[in-house]
Amino acid sequence: MDNHVLEPSLYVIKGIAILDNDGKRILAKYYDPNTLSTAKEQKVFEKNLFNKTHRANTEIIMLENMTCVYKSNVDLYFYVMGSNHENELILVSVLNCLYDSISQILRKNVEKRSLMENLDVVMLALDEICDSGIILESDPTAISYRVALRNDDIPIGEQTVAQVLQSAKEQLKWSLLK
User: Could you tell me which residue ranges the AP complex mu/sigma subunit domain spans (predicted)?
Assistant: First the structure.
């Protein structure tokens, strides 16, 4: 029996992927540099993952020493990967947040075509959910609200310097055109 106790870590997520119904990558982010560090390894892993899950009737799978939770809808497969000792409930909450955020962003039209048309917003949502493997947010309403904001809707105190300068340039341009 192993008495090795793992220390808790904020780095929960090893990767997040969205694949189409042929197993081709639409969007994927891998956060652990020690696992699946090359694009070739990632593609092979995604192919194996899709082959194991596209006909399965479960929500969780262990593959290549990782716990993978997934959800499918119409022609898309959503995956969240963590280490083999990670709590599955945490991974499922991230998966549900990802799926529900995308569903809200795409107005419940979660399919490949609409996802591709809004890929920039979906990528922002993914970045709002997880950064470097650390879960930042798990509320889909908060995620969809953040990615839907336009620069002029953000209070000046919360804008970056670049956003403030861009806003000032636009106001100056409009005042000169009058």
Answer: 13-151
